[in-house]
Each structure stands twice: as C-alpha cells, then as structure tokens.
Amino acid sequence: MYESKFKSVDVDELFSAILQLKTEEDCYRFFEDLTTVPEIKSLAQRLQVAKMLSEKETYTNISDKTGASTATISRVKSSLLYGADGYKKVLQRLGKMS
Length: 98
Prior knowledge:
Order of helices and strands: HHHHHH
Helix content: over 70%
Radius of gyration: 15 Å
Shape: globular
Number of strands: 0
Distance between the termini: 24 Å
Strand content: under 5%
Low-confidence stretches: none
Largest sheet: none
C-alpha cells in the first residue's frame, strides 16, 4: 500500500470529496470554490507539461506551448522519473501515455 508524505485526516477527507465528483461540471464547480484561478491554471499547466514530457517534447516546445518555466518543467520531469507515479497513472488512464 502506498503511503504518501502528506497523508493526514484532512487530506483524506479532501480526496474523498474529490472522488465524489461525477461530472466535469461538478469538477468545475468544486474547484472554482476550492481554489483560485491561478492555482487551478497552475495544476492544469503541470498536467500538460507531464503529457508533453511523456511525448518526448523539448523543454523549449513545452515552454512555448504552455508558458511553463524551465523550473516547472524540470520539477514535473523529476516527478515523472522519481515520483509516486501519479502523473503516469492519470496519463495512462486518459490514454495520453503508453
């Protein structure tokens, strides 16, 4: 069983709440209330960076297309290589990674 570094009762409850979302509209409504616009855009950007890295895009192309800094791209790449495989699982389930 995977044991996260930030596991807590509060985080468990947050994730349980997220798992209750059934539609894209549910997600928009919940995350609009939960986060700021820059926070959600940052999360979306990181997912796009992960997708593009998995497609072997260059840092320059990724930065040009997403506006992500090289520091952000590098952090996402580290997560892809040495992280908890969260990006990989989501990208595979979305059909964006082999």
